[in-house]
Each structure stands twice: as structure tokens, then as C-alpha cells.
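Practice set, problem 2.
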Amino acid sequence: MLGTLVAHLLSLEGALLVAIVSLVYYYVVVRSARYFADRGVAYVPPVPLLGNGADFITRKRHITDILRDMYDRFTQHRFFGYFDFLSPIYVVRDLELVKQICIKDFDHFINHRIQLDENHDPLFGRALFAMRDTRWRNMRTVLSPAFTGSKMRLMFGLITSYCDGAVRTIRSEMGSDGCAELEMKELFRRFGNDIVATCAFGIEINSFRDRTNAFYTLGKELTNLEGVQGLKFLAFSSFPRIMRALRLRLFSAKMTSFFRHVVMDTIAQREQRGIVRHDMINLLMQARKQELRFDENDNIETSNGGTGGQKRLMDWTDDDLTAQCTVFFFGGYDTVSTLSAFMAHELAVNPGAQERLRNEIDTVRTSIGGADKLSYETLQSMRYMDMVANETLRKWTPAPFLDRTCTKPYVLEDYNGHKVQLQKGDGLWVPAAAIMRDPQLFPEPDRFWPERFGPDSPTPIDTASILTFGLGPRNCIGSRFALMEVKAVFFFLLTHFQLEAGPRTQHPIKLKKASLGPSAEKGFWIRFRLRDQPRQA
């Protein structure tokens, strides 16, 4: 009898457990899946728990392809619904609505979705990208002078000297036939590593000779958004409260310690020796000492030259300084190397575009008396170089989407007049890659055609449709630096080398499904040939 009672209680316990699980599943999964249906928003039914990104999570398709398919599916709507795991996201596909949200009504969408504990994850938690509200506004104002044209001119000599040295190294590694097959992402990571190390940290490195230096190896870890690291980055956006409650770090304590010591040691040496170097650390040192003032228009003035009064001066910690330099490194290391790798590929498989760009480079080089005389102003005047860079950014944007969080109530209105009320905390994406492959905005979108950005283009381009570096006040603060770096690198490369498709070149490129950012499935292999060597068959 006792055994029967125990069995009965166990069966009741089992039934209760099943009931609880069923209720949790219904309220968490089933009801959340009806989120957009209840609001009259177009959407694709999600896979339970994994959402609309299930094919990306299981490595069947790249997230860019998933968003592009949904973008093409909902042409009759200004926006549609997407489930990021269980989190509902409003995806805005109409360009006019994108401009309204990112520019005109920016105060409703100031913040990114990602939330990091700045004390537990100081590298990114205190970085400009992750900052929110007033703290972001203040930091953005302080950092903006580091990326003005005058600052670019001061750093330009550092960049060209590294480009010249890297070219000499590549030439020395070529075979007797004057050729070498190189992997572009690896090559441009080394370019970017050295350039950003000197411009952000004041550290001189040659990653073409010292191939295992700490900056380079930690940079690969910092920017690795494939596999587990990519999913972790998504999790910090999709489940910020859970990740913070679990006290998980986006990046390791080892990495945080390395970059903190580099920045602090550099500052200590400069203060002891009175060294002034025109780079980001110098600007941050000024800000920390409260030597930056704001005028009545919120523009920064130096304390010895301006008349504006002090206001909104921040109390800087060591981690505040380290974080800004590290994120600058992150952008220069990965975003620039990705853009450069795709640009090298497109030039190699589109020899007509490469020849036109080389002719422009040769003309400029002759007019200034050699590559060593290249200036920032001369590089900025190269129109076809600019067209090639813009077309690469359009076709292969480093970020599949822009993300925002609604900070105060906002109404989205569809083409048919249907309105949806957004509340504080609601997430929003702008499918940047899909917009820049929209045939209504860019005819023949899969074709690499730099001339579409030229003055004689038959189809005018809305500058707001180029979303690679974001749009509005929260756009990428380092975009000017990134473009300057890429253009300088290609000026020197095409001065010395012909880029050709080789036996390992994958064309057309297929995106690596495990990577959150775009990357070639089989790498970016390109054959370099010295310009004075005959072309191989």
C-alpha cells in the first residue's frame, strides 16, 4: 500500500512537472511567437526557441542571406517582424523611414541593443559603442576631434610609412617568377594591426616580420566573430539581462589586462618624458586632465585657446581610456581588413576596374613626383579610388544590420496606414546589407560597378542608402580614418603589384556561414604579380 501511495505521488509530481513545463513553453514560446500577429505586423513564423535566425545558428545560411530573403519577401511593407531567438525585433526596410528613425527622430533611438556591465567587462562596457544616453553623448563629443580632417593629416605620414614598409616585405617574399599567392584577410589584418597600433596606442610594430606579436594574436581573438564568439556577441544583444546576471564577459580578462597595461604604460612614459604625439592617447590625456572645454555650441576648445566655460567634463578612469583605444583598434583591425579583402577580390576579378584605378594612381604619382610624396589631400582628391571603395562598401558591408533600442514611445506607420506603437526597450534593426543590394536603389546590385558612384551615373544614389558606417548621430566615428587607411594601402599596392585571380580564388564568393560578419568561405586568395613581370596564363 505504501508503494502504491509513493507511485501515486510520483505520478502526480510528474504530471505537475509536465504541466509547469507546458505552461512555461506556452507563455515563453507560443505567446511570444504571436507577438507580431497580435500587432498586425508582417512576419515569418519562427523556429521555437531559435527564432528566425535558426538557419544561421545551425550554420545552414549566413544571417545576411536570411535578412535579405525576408527583405525581398515583404516589399509591400515599410517594416516587418523578426524573432532574434525569442526577442521580437522590428526590421525597417523603407529607406525614408530609416532616415526618419536614424536622423530626424534619433532621440527615440539613441542606444544600441547590447548592454554590458562596465565594471565586469570594462573593455567594451565602457567603450563608445556600448555607452548609452547622456554618457554616450558626452563621450562622443570628447572623441570627435580625434577624427577630424586635421587629425587625419597628422596621422597620414604614419600610415604611408607602414604601407611602404609592407610593400617592401611583400616584394622580398616573391618567387623568381615575380608572383606570390596571398590570403587577403591575413595580409590586411597585418596592415591594420600595425597602423592602428601606432595611431591609437603609439606603439610601433611590424607584423610582417614579427608574425606572432601580442597585438596581432590578441587582435585575432578580439575580432573573432565566428562560432562560439559570434554567438556570444549575439547573446549579449538578445539576452543582456541573462548575460549580465551570469557575470559573463564578452572578452577575456587576459585581453583586458594586456590593453590596459599598454595604454597606462604609454601614458606614464609620455608624462614622465614630456612626449607629445598626435594620436588618440594624446587627446584622451587632455580630456582626463580636463584640458578640453566646450563652447556654447558644444564644440570642444582647448583650455589655452578657447573662451568657452567648462561643462560636462567627465571623470576618467584607466578603463575609460583603455576602452576607447581598444574599440578603435577593433574597428581598424577587423572592419578595415574585411573591406580591404573584398576590395582586393573585386579588383582581381574585375580587371577593367583595376586598370582604371591603376591609371588614376599612376597619373597622381607622376603629378606629385612619386608615391613617397602622397598627401592626405591628394588621396582625398582621387575620384575613382573613392568610387571603388564606395562600391565595395555597398556590395560587401561589414555589418549585416544596424541595431537600435527604442528609448521612448514611438509610432511606426506602414504603407497602408496601419500603425504600431513601440515602447521603451523595443528592439529595431535596419537591414543594411539588404538595402544596399536592393535593385530599386541599385540596379544590377550583384554587379561590381564603381561607375554607379560617378558623376555620370544614370541612377542618382541617395547617400543615406550607403549604410556601411551607420546613419545619423550614431554613425561610426572612425569611418574617415578607415577609408583613409584603405585608400592609402591600395595606392601603394597597385603602384607595385597586379592583382589576379589565382587557382585558390573563390569566385563568386560564398559567405562563411559560421561568421557573424561577412567572410569568404574559402578565404580571400589572390595572386600578386610584380607590375614589371609578364602575366601568367
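Problem 2, part (b): a different protein.
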Amino acid sequence: MENWRVADYLVQGCAELGVEHIFGVDGANIEDIYDAAARPRSGVRGVVAKHEFAATAMAHGYARATGGLGVVVATSGGGAMNLVAGLAESFTSQVPVLALVGQPARELEGLGAFQDTSGRAGSIDAVQLFTAVSRYCARVDQVRDLPRQFAAAVEAAFAGGPAVLLLPKDIQRAAIDSRPVRLPPFTPMDPDADDLAAVATALGCARERGKVLVIAGDQVARDNAHHGLRELVTDLHALVAVTPDAKDVYGPRDRGYLGVAGMMGHPDVIEAARSAALCLLVGTRFPATARIALGETPLASIGSLPPYAPGIHATSADLAATLPAIAALMRETGIRTPTLSASTPPASPTAATRLRPPPATGPGLRYREVMTALSELLPTGSAVFADAGNTGAAAVHYLDLPADGRFGLALGMGGMGYSFGAAIGAAFADPRPTYVLAGDGSFFMHGMEIHTAVEHDLPVTFIVLNNNAHAMCVIRDRLYCRNHDDRNRFHPAFLAEGLAAMFPTLPCYPVRTLGELRDALTMPGGNGPRFVSIDCDPDEVPPFAPFLD
């Protein structure tokens, strides 16, 4: 307890929650948190990222990989402002992230302090700013309030989304006379029994009339509810689609799999929706990126938040418990469901019908052949994080994950560059082979986080499809704009060669043929990071339905 400060209290509190890594960018008004993490036997390692947005993505990926809490730290001013987009992604995707944000000392607030965000004397109000992108936000103005505020922040984060504590410099360094109280595990509220019964009844009635189509979302992965989903699907003899960010919850090796729903998805899902007796959403709000036309097909939903489309809904913050409860309720109420014999074969891995973009004639490899090769080469259990844009659309549509694979995609507010930080955060939590699939536009935004992977020798393979353009914008200009120019096309950049010169220990592979791609991914090179740059055509149309109408 000697020299026990608020900063030590916070780090110890994170450690007792199972957090082993915190992510951020060091600076004067957050250095005490890093100092506390460096304390012998703190149990927490402070990781220095290159940018706060990427640090938030690391905390996001870490939380997804552990099923626990991710922690990001940032100094005041621009460092704090850089958190907003990353926290907004965690808010939208309901991933538990705790942000510890440094502030100038209290005695300087409202007096023109450097990076003052107290809201006094016309300064920016950080509480107001972060409240809009968090489930809980509080400024710690008194040491005695810290235990209550820390507990409230953790509870809010585990309920689904980011929480923010604003920490003046003098508060971080102040003495505190107690260690953190061990917080009880978060216990989600039980779903309403009447709502569950309504969903079970709707499923039973629909099963008597015809097929049920299940569309599963990423909450299934967050709640580790894969087994419950498979049991329910088997009981219903249902057809299954997944949202673009949930490719790891059900796949082509599973019975009844149709593909991905939405604008990057597969036509078979649309046909199934039109003829289904009921569409059941599991762990998704059915956002625009996953939306398909249901026509007259009724909708039911199970998940932490109600869907954007109208229908019957049962709220559940723990699908691992709720999905078996639904199946049991159907059995208890005498709803008959067909059973599959053990000899019933799973759907073929190539069963999903692909979209057919126009043929590309430009230089480089094609999206489909790259993703097909990756599907064959990814080791069992790999984690894949894809980025926004043409590369993400191609990964969603064409890539088949390996057995026990994981998939991450930011479709909320994360935007381009999210995959670099998220993959690094996940790799800190879980040493499985991890892959980033991104375009060169995303690389130029946040690709220098590769430096963090190099510094910590993480098992991350960075695969950048380089078409020397913001290629999705190139396609949009051509299709939708009256006066398009070449603003989204770039001069050639030789990414692999450049990074090889920057990081002598980083294996870097320029790829222009499928043979070179296979060599790059199978070349012995230890368990550390590697970088692969694949030449692609900026004018190739990706498998993105709005571009194909």
C-alpha cells in the first residue's frame, strides 16, 4: 500500500478484471497510468500504439478475442479527440471497452490550460463529447468518488459498449487508501418470459407452415453462443445466413448454410427470404449492410437490442443461455420440430451462389482468385480482420474461414484502418495466427501500426491489396458522379519494398502472381509478423450489390 496512487488503483482494478494489456499512446497527462502498469507485479502490460484510433481498435479486438474488457488510455487534447471514432465503433457494435483519458490538473481548468477540455471558460467539454459515444462517462473530480465511478464504468461497459473516465493529472497522482474492491461478474438480465414465449410460438407456427430462415449476427460470437445457435438450427431444420461481420458464427461446413446476407452477400439468401415462413434474427439489429428484402415474410428477433425492422423481439444480453432456453421452451410447449439424422451431410463448402461482377481487364490479381487462394491457405483456427472498401467486400463474399476461424469487420463507425489495430489487439490476447486484409487506402491511414506488431513480435500477417487508389471511390465516381476525375487514383507505391527497407526484421513479399502469394504465405519465417502486398486492378468492380444493378 506504500505510495498507492489513483493510477495504481485503476491498473490493479483492470488486472483483477482479467485485463493483461492496455493500449494507448503515452503522454504527459496519461503517463502515470503507464507508470502504474510498469510497477513490478502489476499484472498489466502497457502497450504503446502509434495512434489513439488504432489503440481503441486494439482494445476492441482484445475484448472480442478474450470475451472480456478492453482498455484504452489516452492523454489530453488531440490524443483524447483521436479516440472518438474508435469508441463510436465499440458503441455501435456493443463491445466492452474502458477508456481512461488524461486531463490537465484541476487547478488549471478554465484558466487557459494547455489542452483544457473541462468545459470551463469556453473550453471544449469532454464529458459532453464522450457521453455521445459511450454508455457511461464521468469526470473524476474527487478521489473518494473513484471506486464508485470505476465500478459504474465497468458495469456499463460489460452491458455493451464503451465507458469513459476523465482523469485530471493531479487525481491520477493523488494517494488513495484502498485497493480496488473485487467487482462481481456482470450478470445480464434474464429475457422477459412473455417475449421468449412469443418468439418460440412464432417459430413453432412458422415451422408447421414451411422453412425458417435464421440470420445470425456478431453477438453470437461475442456471447460465445455458437453451440446454442447450431442446436436451435438443428431443431428447426432451418436455413442459415450470417451478417457480413459474423462469418465466424456459422459457415459452409454447417448444415443449411446459405451465405452472407446484405449488399455484399449471396443471392441464395434473398431467394430463401422470399419463400420462408419466418425470418429469425439472432444477435443482429439487421442494419443496412445486412438488409435483404423480406417481402411478406414475418420477422422475429433475439438479441441485445431490437432490430431496425419491425417484428417480434426478445431482449437477450446472453445468447449462450437464451438460445437453449428457446429450444427448451419449444419442446416444453409441445411444438414439434423435425430432427436430422447423424448421416445427414453438411452443406457443400461451395454451395453459396456468388455474385457475378463484370470481368476485370486491368493489371494484377483478381479479388476472387486472391480470396480463393487464402481460403485454401489459412491455417486452422486463424483469425481474420478485414477492412472497409473493396477488399472488405471481397473478403465477405468470397473468403471461406478455416475451421475454428474467427472474423472481424468494422461496419459501425470504425471505418478504414480499423483492421490493423484490431488484429494487433486480438493477437496480444490470443496467439493464434492472425491476418489483416486491407486495401492500400486503409494502409495509408493506419498501416504504420505494423510497427507495434514488429516491436512485440506478434503473429500477424498483414495482407494489403494494393490498387494504388481508393478503389471503391473510383467505382462510385464512375457510376454515380457527373464530373469524375482521377482524385482517387494514386501514383504507384511499392509497399512491400518500402516496408522491407523501413523494418529490416520484417519479412515483406511483393505479390503479382498466385504462385508468389502461395510462397509468401507458406514461406518459413518464424511466428512473428509478415507483410504481403498484392497488386490489384483499381477498376475491378467488387462483389457489392449496389454496383451491379
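Answer key, part (b): The chain has 22 helices and 18 strands. The radius of gyration is 24 Å.
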